[in-house]
Each structure stands twice: as structure tokens, then as C-alpha cells.
Write a structure and sequence with these properties.
Structural class: alpha/beta
Number of domains: 2
Number of strands: 13
Shape: elongated
Helix content: 25-40%
CATH superfamily of the largest domain: P-loop containing nucleotide triphosphate hydrolases
CATH architecture of the largest domain: 3-Layer(aba) Sandwich
Order of helices and strands: EEEHEHEHHHEHEEEHEHEEHEH
Strand order of the largest sheet: 5-6-7-3-8-9
Number of helices: 10
Largest sheet: 6 strands, mixed
Length: 328
Amino acid sequence: MQEPAITQPTNPQLIILTQNLRKEFDGTPVVQDVNLAVPQGKIFGFIGPSGCGKTTTVRLLVGTYQPTSGEVTVLGRQPRQFRRHEREKIGYMPQQFVLYPDLTVRQNLNFAASLYGLGWRERRTHLREMLDLVELTEHRDKIAQNISGGMQRRLSLASTLMHKPSLLFLDEPTAGIDPVLRRKFWDYFRVLQKRGQTLFITTQYVGEAAYCDYVGVMSRGRLLTVDSPEGLRRKAMGGDVILMQLTGTLPMEKWFSLQELPFITGQVYPVGDNTWRMVVADASVALPELVAWTQSAHLEVVSMREDQPSFDDVFLQLMQNEEENSAQ
């Protein structure tokens, strides 16, 4: 199988760097040859199907697991060799609820803050901010084991943010959260980014890739690609996508003619209502050329525009491309 081309972000201040990172359990590879480069102050999204190796990769990055082979550095040091001041710069939210079930919501947040030596005045102010962010203010005196699973996820996120870490590893922070609150979280993540913090976020919601600066796509323990959200679209689809709606059908001979145009890089096919979908190298160049072609072909156009496939479609296309490459 041909190895996929990976567009890594370029930045001299790399917070996370891995080279041929690999992890095996009982001889079975779970993470294979992962190469990552995450710059400071960026949001890096990590997406992929369940069981593809996302969580294992995060645990390698925070030092919970030791790599079978390959190298990993975070904040310029191997995670297993982190010193106290380096660990204090990191916030890690795992998938599982690991806080104290017998403490209240507020007591858990106070305890998390105390571990990092936050003074009472700063702690009190930040605690109110975090309770508001995760919408747990009215539940602050409830015992943690008595709140819902979704509330426990929100409490875990709040406790991870309490000491204002400069590097955040968030493993499925929006899982089980309603869409309105998920958007609120991502708005806050952007605020953190503007403050210079770096976020490494795994997510089961493919559409959340749009909020990230860079996105890594995992499948079967391998990193398929790393790119910007727009770069992922182009990579999955083979270029930009244009939708063209006509007043009538597209005659077969004109369809053949359209397929032969130099700016068409993929198949032209119907998607209903006399609408045709095509992949082009560059939509800004192709659109005026396509208008001129329809005029010369005496075709009446209802609309013509660049299409933005959803990230669900992009992800499915990347998975399909991976399967086709594996079969070769």
C-alpha cells in the first residue's frame, strides 16, 4: 500500500512532535508509525472511528503509556521524563470519569485547583467561571456520583481547566453533550487559543473538525492525513466541488464534452433536479470557464456554485479512499 501524503503544519515552536510512534499490546499494534507536529497556540483535532487508536495516542502523549517504538516529545521532553513544572503546564481530560465521586461538584473543582497551588482569591474567581462555562452553577453542591453522565463530563472538563494549563489534551470533551453546549465549549476553546494555549482534542463528532486549525484522521491505528479543514476537503474530494443546475437535462454528447474540459479533475455525475456535481482543480478558476462553456454549448443555467461537502461526507470519502488504497 502506498503511504499517504501528510501535510504537517510548519512552525518552529512545536509543542508536540512524534516520529514513527508505535504502540503494541501483546504483540498487536494499536498505534502504528504516527508522525505528528503540533505548533504552539493551535487547535489540533483528532478524528477517527471508535477503536482506531485515538485514545491510545493521547495516552502516549501524556506519558500514561510507554511507546513500543518511535519517539515522542511534548514541551520539548519525553512524557515519561516530565518534571513537575512541565506537568503543571498540561491539562488532561480522559474519557473516563476519574474525579472523586463522594465530593460535591464544587469540592472536586476546589481540590483540582489546590493540587496546583492556586490561591483562594484566584481559585474562587476561576471556579465561578468554570461552573458557568459547563452550566453546573446550580448543581455545584451536588455529590458527583449523583449527577448524570453528561454532567460528569462537564465537571471533568471544568476540573481540567482549573489551573489554566498552556497545553490541553481533551479526549472526547463534547461526548454526550447537547449541540448548544457543544458549540459553547468550542467557542471557549477558541478563547483559550487566542490566549496562546494549545489544544489537542479528540472527537467523535466529525463536524467539529471545522473548528480546528489542523485535523488528523486516524484509521486502524494509522494516521491517514493531517491538514487544515479546507485541505481535508480538497484531499478527500480530489479538488474543489462545483454544483451546476440546468433548466433541462444534459445531453449525452455535451456530458462527454464537459468531462473533457481541462479544469475537470473528477467524474461529472447527476445529483437530482437537473443538477450536476463535478470536481475541479480550483473553483475560482473553473467557475468562469464553466460559465463560458455552458454559453457556447447553448445550455441554460439556473445556478452554479462551489459546494462545501460536510465533514461527515469528507470523513466517509477519506475512509473509502483508505479502503481502496489498502486493496491495492
